Amino acid sequence: MKLKKGIPLIDQGNKLGFWGGKFGGNFVPETLKKPIEDLEILFNKLKKDEKFIKERDKHFKNWIGTPTRFIKLENLTKHVGGAQIWSKVVSDANGGAHKIYNATVHCLLAKRSGKKIICGDTGAGYAGKMLSMAAKKFGLKCKIFMGAKDIARQQPNVKAIKKNGAEIVPVYSGSQTLVDAVSECMRFWVANCDTTAMCVGSTVGPAVFVRICGWSTSQISRELKVQLIEEFGSIPKKLKLYNCVGGGSSSFGFWNEFMDLNKKQCEFVGVEAGGPAKSKKHAAPLTYGSKIGILHGAAQYVNQNSDGQIEETESISAGLDYPGISPLHCFLKDTKRARYTAASDEEALSAYKLVTKFENLRPSLEPSHAFFVAIKEAKRLSKDTIVVVNSCGDAYKDRGILEKRLGKKYAKSN
Amino acid sequence: MPNPISIAFKKAKQENRPALLTYTVAGDSTKQQSLNILKSIYKNADILEVGFPHNTPVADGSQIQTSAYRAIKNGIKLNDIFKIVKDFKKLAKDKPIILMGYYNMIFQFGENNFLNKCKASGVNGLIVVDLPWPENKVFAKKCKRKSIYFIQLLSPTTTSKRLKKIINNSHSMNYFISMLSTTGGKLKVSPNEILKKYKKIKKLNPKKDIVIGFGITEKTIKKLKSADGLVVGSAICKEITRSLKSGQNPVTNVGRLVKKLKNKIK
Question: Which of A110, A230, B151, B196 could form a disulfide with A115 if both were Cys (CB 3.0 to 4.6 A apart)?
């Protein structure tokens, strides 16, 4: 299994949509074969269409607000006393997280295909919030599927989704989290694919959805590359990019432009959700060696029992609380291009405390996982090493959890 | 010897009626009860579809989901399901059984291992909801070698070009999904329209047996009776749920329901 240079990773799958011959694919009911094929044809055409790219870039610039900031965390760097710690503040993007890129592209595709309705899944509520924003902007009706447990714990985003005029469909089956929301959204698409477009909220699902999402979030690394060169004159010799990994959309987008660099120059570190320290449940299939299985149409490493039943996950962060992981990351793991590890709930909270203590930055619980590992490793790294953490979401949505776990002070800081 | 599935279709044709196919979930609500349900319906049903329940079923509506979650909660495993089939076949060895489910369970069990177990316990056909053509080519071939029918699914969204290819590659039986829906949806297309599409598919190769499923209930079954076979699933799962909730015996109730269904298409 090998990565190819000079070809975007999203285009390195084989004819049936498998990366490395075994990750991804299209394990879907017959009814979805045609709509998926239609979407593939449309996407393959438009991603080469200069007019479409121009349109995308216009919306990215004027509406989402690009580029998001690339800043040095001076105080944190001083406190840690090792590598330089920087952050790409992707939460600057309109709506407060990276999910806006994928949502915007899906709405543009839906418009081109003549669909009037778009449906989508959400865990932390960001994918749902962004899809509802983009749907509103582009004049599409919007339906968001969200687990009942996530609706309870991510209220600020739920309110935002409703305010944008989208309908929220609570999902009560299974663990009532993201995994069930994605299933229910796919079921809705099965029954309504003639009128409705579907947006999968991360780099998961049938191959074309993995590709569209990866193509969209890659905006992050396109910006970062320019910013690194502006700041350092060239891409630093020792660069480490830390990102949380749930489904894997922000991390893939954060790394994509640097894929062809030697990993000694630019290392990718993906941080999964280890769950509560005392619990056996987790959302870290790569770190804890889960077996390959099929979830939501794609072969991937996934938490499951010996019979192939998908196992329940547990994480403080709704956005990472997913038993599977993008086929792209499975491929990056097996080709050893990226390294994966996990941080527990408690570790993510401690990192949140530390970052907010020293910096005017409020990463949500998802990137707080990445901050924990970055800070831990930065201590032992040389001063000329550039550590960059993708702060891909804002903690506003987490204020209920933060108040409960850390006290009022932390929910309101910054 | 021909596959009992083909014999069942032949027999129904001789009686000038469609074959009645039932779908129940193995282990719903217990292993014993699901076996007893099969025993209570097999005299009126021509082919028994037995679901191996999965906990992320992306093509199933709420009725079958409820049955599946109930069975999983009560501890059903693939090995138990093979045992249920084997025990049933002791009673009625010629009654065709089709296992139906999602690919991950087969993948984890190992394709070859799974097929060996199918063969040993007397399974005659397989429907794998999320392993469409051409992804299923290799597995379907393996099934054929074991004389197990791999049943291809066809949908209203399947293009004519694709239909031809699938039918050409298919074994003897195919399954036409009546409408854009998960299982158990209300019939949102008129039976006439469904039959129109059905006949178009049937023309591609009249020798293949094609059944219609999704949205078929006591109310709608009669109107579709010109098909080779009709599948009732969610309506049965719903009856099991209703019986359990009202403290009645699902075994007798489902037995009665299937008898009624049979009478409608006689």
Answer: A110
Q: Give the per-residue pLDDT at A412.
A: 64
Q: Which of A27, A192, A308 sits opposite B105 (nearest CB)?
A: A308
Residues of B whose CB is below 8 A from A183: 56-58
**So what's the pLDDT on residue B128?**
98
Domain boundary among A178, A196, A214: A214
Q: Is B60 a catalytic residue?
A: yes
Distance of CA A273 to the CA centre of its chain: 13
pLDDT at A414 (0 to 100): 47
6-65 in chain B: CB under 8 A from chain A:
54-61, 65
Mean pLDDT of B231-246: 97
Looking at A182, A214, A246, which one is the last position of a domain?
A214
The Cα of A96 is separated from the nearest Cα of chain B by a number of Å equal to 30
pTM: 0.97
Question: Which residue in chain B is spatially nearest to A293 when comparing CA positions?
Answer: B104
Q: What is the pLDDT of residue A263?
A: 96
| CATH number of the domain enclosing B222 | 3.20.20.70
Residue A207 domain-assigned?
A: yes
Q: Which band of pLDDT confidence, cut at 50, 70 and 90, is reported for residue A6?
A: very high
C-alpha A170/C-alpha A180 separation (Å) is 10
Domain count, chain A: 2
Structure token pair of residue A383 = 């001063």
Which pair of structure tokens corresponds to residue A255? 């790394």
What domain range is A181 assigned to?
28-60+99-214
Could you give the ipTM of this predicted complex? 0.96
Please work out, in degrees rounded to the nearest 5, the angle formed at the alpha carbon of residue B110 by the alpha carbons of B106 and B113.
105
